[in-house]
Design goal:
heterodimer, A: about 400 residues, alpha+beta, Cytochrome-c3 Hydrogenase, chain B, 2 domains, three-stranded antiparallel sheet, 16 helices, B: about 160 residues, alpha/beta, Beta Polymerase, domain 2, five-stranded mixed sheet, two-stranded parallel ribbon, about 20% helix, elongated
Chain lengths: ~400, ~160
């Protein structure tokens, strides 16, 4: 095998407790965790091969939520009908999924959408990043044993969901972004509410840091745990905060810009190994916290520049792309979400393949877990922030 | 490197392994590779100083109809910031492709998915079994001629 290996896999780090040697090696045992375990964030089953307390291997068993998304798409009458299904991939950040799909379709159909639409989409996608990261951070604290930060995160999340609800009527699954436009224009009070939220939310990130991020117990549980080196991360194809946590400064919004992201001024946070090694659980966690700050920056800039216009002027009446194919990727809260769309010239899609970031990130889980303790698996799984709706499709 | 240069480089290195290409008039230019040369091509593309494709973004199976299946590799180089699409066409009756899981570890699960959904056999894969469907499922659901079974393990499948 000439693929990139982690330190444990190269055999440089022993998988038994140092000092005790191999004499205490016991027989390996398989423990099944899930599919209804509260810390697996959905229906995921892990077969954990343990040697005493040390994890020899982890075998993820997925597919419990498989609902034939790709097969359904091939049977749709037209391309617009796919959008509500796309919502249900990563159901905590539905706006980002729609964004990726409509951007891909517009590139395929060569549609230029109005400026106002672009700005509203960016605001919504960044809001959805904040919502997703709040859930990731809140439940991560919950996994490790911190109950209070979860409630704080849910409280802030409600404010964003209120803005979503006011705009399109739905709180979780929106069907808001359409090919060529939006289903509704925003309310006249939208801009003020957005700016008000930004003002309200910034101090709360600091509060969250004081509560959780720099908590001694939290750092002890997460620092230097589940280390994923940068070269292994790239070889595994992981993306989003998991990749950036490994010290790779890579963000599609900056490195391969789509929509109007090149107009905004923001940084790409990445793991620096502040509390332990680069690419540990704490780094992955902290990237999410910093990303929320950057998202607030983007939202503030976009809301201040929000132009006037009609949000439905570019929506095509009939969608029938030429025979051909496209692969378009966008940066969702979980990572690189790609749509590989093949058209055969008819009104219904020939093939829609989703590149789900969580699926790829989860495939790196065994490499991160090998050599860790059983309790660390909870911390490592939480830090990869998988949503099983997207893994299983 | 632009797609034309990459194609010329591949063509000079693997003359008979590169079958056809579509470089102009498409959004993503692609090069078609023989199914029994894909491992060599993948290793060359990852390791060569001029290409450095360190990231296999997406590996997908496609049913091209008319008895042909395809494995599509979307490659990207983070270091050199260029991309290329490789395609491998295999007949439905003998769907054998070389596995690239030893080059990019991300291919492990993505090849399993292509096997699960299209029944493509990736030779040399470390652990080729179903990933999303149950282990005892019959058939490969994303094939265009797939018929939904009436019963699964004696249970009636609704609709």
């Amino acid at each position: 095998m000439d693929a990139t290996l982690t330190e444990v896999e190269k055999g440089r780090r022993p998988t038994t407790i140092p000092g005790l040697g191999r004499a205490l090696r016991t027989e390996e045992m398989v423990i099944s965790m899930g599919p209804q375990h509260p810390s697996t964030h959905g229906v995921l089953r892990l077969d954990i091969v343990v040697d005493g307390e040390i994890v020899a291997d982890v075998i993820p068993r997925i597919g419990y939520l498989h609902r034939c998304f790709e097969k359904h798409c091939e049977h749709m009458a037209n391309y617009q009908q796919v959008i509500p299904y796309v919502d249900r991939l990563d159901y905590v950040a539905a706006m980002s999924n729609e964004f990726g799909y409509v951007v891909a379709m517009e590139k395929m159909l060569k549609i230029q959408v109005p400026e106002r639409v672009e700005y509203i989409r960016v605001i919504m996608a960044e809001f959805s990043r904040i919502v997703s990261h709040l859930i990731a951070i809140g439940t991560y604290g919950l996994d490790i044993g911190a109950w209070t930060p979860f409630l704080y995160c849910m409280r802030d999340r409600e404010h964003v969901l209120d803005i979503f609800e006011e705009t399109c009527g739905a709180r979780l699954l929106y069907n808001y972004m359409w090919i060529g436009g939006l289903s509704h224009d925003v309310k006249p009070t939208f801009k003020d509410k957005v700016l008000e939220f930004c003002k309200y939310f910034r101090p709360n990130i600091k509060e969250l840091n004081d509560l959780l991020s720099y908590n001694k117990i939290f750092i002890d549980r997460t620092a230097s745990v589940g280390v994923l080196p940068g070269d292994v991360a790239v070889n595994f194809g992981v993306s989003g905060p998991v990749l950036r946590g490994s010290g790779v400064q890579w963000d599609i919004r900056k490195n391969d810009p789509y929509s109007i992201y090149n107009r905004f001024d923001f940084d790409i946070p990445f793991g620096k190994g502040e509390k332990g090694k680069v690419g540990d659980c704490w780094d992955r966690y902290m990237v999410r916290v910093h990303e929320m700050e950057q998202s607030v920056n983007i939202i503030e800039q976009a809301a201040k520049q929000l132009p006037e216009g009609d949000v439905q002027s570019a929506i095509p009446k009939r969608i029938r792309p030429e025979a051909g194919e496209i692969y378009m990727r966008t940066e969702t809260p979980k990572g690189e979400l790609g749509y590989y769309i093949i058209s055969d010239g008819t009104a219904s899609p020939f093939r829609i393949k989703v590149r789900p970031p969580c699926f790829v990130n989860l495939s790196a889980l065994p490499a991160m877990c090998r050599g860790a303790m059983i309790a660390d698996i909870i911390a490592i799984l939480g830090s990869t922030d998988v949503v099983l709706g997207e893994v299983d499709r | 490197m632009i797609a034309q240069e990459l194609y010329d480089l591949l063509k000079t290195t693997f003359s008979d392994g590169i079958l056809e290409a579509k470089l102009d008039g498409v959004i993503d230019p692609w090069v078609s590779v023989a199914p029994d040369r894909i491992l060599d091509v993948a290793r060359f593309l990852r390791d060569d100083e001029r290409t450095q494709f360190d990231l296999l973004t997406l590996l997908s199976g496609v049913d091209m109809t008319k008895g042909t299946l395809a494995a599509v590799y979307h490659l990207y180089s983070m270091k050199r910031n260029h991309k290329i699409v490789l395609k491998t066409f295999v007949p439905e009756t003998h769907p054998h492709v070389q596995s690239v899981a030893s080059i990019w570890r991300t291919a492990d699960w993505q090849e399993r998915e292509a096997f699960d959904m299209y029944g493509m056999i990736f030779d040399g894969h470390p652990d080729l079994r179903r990933i999303l469907m149950p282990d005892d499922w019959d058939g490969h659901p994303l094939r265009k001629d797939y018929q939904v079974p009436e019963f699964y393990n004696g249970m009636k499948v609704p609709y």
